[in-house]
Amino acid sequence: MEELQPRQSFAATFLGEVQEVATAIKVVYSQKLDQAIELLFEAWKDGRWVYVMGNGGSAATATHLVADLTKTICAAPQDRGIKAMTLLDNIPLVTALVNDWGWDNIYVHQLSTLYVEGGVGIAVSVHGGSGQDKAGQWSQNLMKGLQFIKDSGGKTIGLSGFDGGPMKDLVDIGIVVPANSTPIVEGMHVVLHHLIIFGLKQKIYDYQQSKNSGYRETSYIS
Known about the structure:
CATH topology of the domain at 46-192: Rossmann fold
CATH class of the domain at 46-192: Alpha Beta
Distance between the termini: 54 Å
Mean pLDDT: 93
Largest sheet: 5 strands, parallel
Number of helices: 7
């Protein structure tokens, strides 16, 4: 009788894949993540707007990111955050756009009204505009929104997964989580979003302190 082998822990397997993905991102994308921090730092200095887009679970990440850009990068209540907005939290507006003009236009229409010159677009998408389901090709609304910002002279950042889809080549700074697992991609997007936020917070703090006497470095990572 064949002896059954014990099944490996699901948690250990999942976390092992997360560790492998994190190591791959560190090797391949550290420089691009630093570039994303620098781009947002310049947006903060210049008072430019940041527009964030995402669908499904990535919509929650987009909202979370806007909260952090507005508040978390500030060391004190009187400090200035980044002028940031999502293009998905106004439910009456989004449903009106879907009802009248279709899902593909929910971001580009809002940008045609709200975009301010010099703005930065950030899109979060598991597949980066590739793949499809019953409603058609995924995340074409993100692609149209990013293209609008590029055509308007703005800069763009994209967080995607799997093979990155066409979004990775459309954006100025593309970071692809190299995993073929939606939960791992979505989870790592939050990790990367926090990496960018706390790198930005550190950069802003150092910049402010360098303008004052008695400059000292501190860290917001711990």
